[in-house]
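Fresh eyes needed here. Kindly weigh in on this sequence plus structure tokens:
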Amino acid sequence: MTKPRYLTKSRFKMATECPTKLFYTGKKEYPNTMLDDPFLAALADGGHQVGELAKQYYPGGIDITTLDYDEAEKQTVELLQRDEVIIFEPAIRFKNLFIRVDVLIKKGNQFELIEVKAKSYSATKDKDFFNTQGKIDSKWKPYIFDVAFQKHVLQSAFPKSTINSYLLLIDKTAKCATDGLNQKFVLAKDEINRKGIAVSASLSDDDLIEKLLTKVNVNKAIQYAYDNELTNGMPEHTFLDNIVSLAKYYEADEKIAPVVGKKCKTCEFRCSSEDEDRGKISGVKSCWKQQLHWKDEDFEDKTVLDIWNFRKTDECIENGIIKLEDFTPDHIGVVENKSPELTPKERQWLQIEKYQQRDNSAYFDSDSMRIEMASWTFPLHFIDFETSAVAIPFYKEMTPYEGIAFQFSHHIVHADGKVEHADEFLHTERGVFPNFEFVRALKRALEKDSGSIFMYSSHENTYLNMICKQLNQSSETDKEELCQFIKTITRSTGNSEENWRGDRCMIDMLDLVKKYYYDPATNGSNSIKAVLPAILNSSKYLQDKYRSEIYGSVDGIKSANFKNKAWIEFDELGKVKDPYKHLPKMFGDISDHDVELLSEEDELNNGGLALTAYAKLQFTHISDYERNELRAALLKYCELDTFSMVVVYEGWKELM
């Protein structure tokens, strides 16, 4: 018997991003680069914990746990025979539409449809989800569309009912009522080995007296969506007509004609050449072949999607300017710049020009960098933080998503060129707020001299500002001393109540990369994960230095976590292997594919691997052996982060 092909809320969400994706989803021949285990992402941001917390606000609710469509619908129909009932995850079907509602409250002929999201909401800033132009704010559209789809299905299934729809969101102003609340929602497996959140028997009324979630009516936003949204780039011209049309296409397994654009850059339906050799098909390539009539060899060329931080992608594609070969400065809008620093447009054109000229050499403004370096004070300190932000707070009086700084690494480069891994900090004790011990350890590491301090992105500065605010609200006896230290090495952010710029204000290496350095091997990325292998491959000096086992050796570079390590290895093409590939696998129970995705970082250094590891240490029951192995892996990853910064500095120094 053929399994029914229902348009669900997740498939509808996917189709609103690009309707052609409906044809690719769920098919083995079209690989999907999203996480194999989406539970990991929700574990890291607290999504599942929030879902379970929401249920605690509705006592007497009945949870439908089966994943079987027919059985879930059968149980739902039976429960809805009652005049009043609260159901978690009820299954509602109407023709070829199928939804599981987070919370459904029935009172006679009236329904409350509640969608739970682990997203912060501010009653003053977000209000009714509309922007100043009277349109739905773009950041809220996916959530409004989600509830709008569910309301349509529920209303169609129960046409005589009255439905009020809500988002249940994280209240940014709420304060936790008790200590240790987050430890009462931990990852567990049920009797058939499914992952889920187990709620502690110790959860009490006192824990729930201050609500961390707020219920916000979205009826107005939904009606606006029905009247005004999804009018372009879709099979039909209205929101509700598109639901019907998308469901028909999916049910018939028919492909909707693609419209290529900037959305293709983040499309999950893509695969490597190795996968293609094994018979897999790239959804992205299929779309481009269909609309643009490209052949396989066309994909060997760089395109507009490769340009760093480019805002005119769709405009260029509409005008047929797709390959970098076809670009001129006018397409970028390059203007004369009297400053030596690269502007974003100059950097974009530099990327294009080097590609057009097949120039693989690195751009390096040695004169400007020499001026920068002349202002630095030895010894040089390189630091990197690993952080998290959990939805359900650790302590009483904390607000949701207050930042957690649980790890740092610290390398030093001395005036004579000596390198050492000087300090590290890792705090993973379950249920303990680490921030104040974190900053005390950082202070001990950095207060021994007045040397310049380096970060990679403003992430470290932002977190230290936040910790200063937390200290001011605390009863810590040394809070003034710690805040004074923080202010010496940071600059104030927009959220600060006062303005300052410390005498040792941290220097942002990412900022230096953007202004003075570009290597075509990074393909436009400025992430340290892209810059490191690029500079290793272009610098014979670095290759010669680190091909021997000097890192972690007695007479070489001091290291806390490596012994006699040689970082330079070459692949079959003669390229230096990415040093991060040398590290041990952080998780034994997830796929290599997921590890790869979680290892990716954006320019702001927001890799997901470490924060997922921290979430696992906090919210799962694992053995002492697993815990120790995970801690050891975290220490190695973070040490390599700051060592990478040292290597980039050394590479620049040699270029001068």
About this structure: Residues 593-599, 601-606 have pLDDT under 50 and may be disordered. Residues 624-655 form the longest helix (32 residues). Residues 442 and 492 are 18 Å apart (CA to CA).
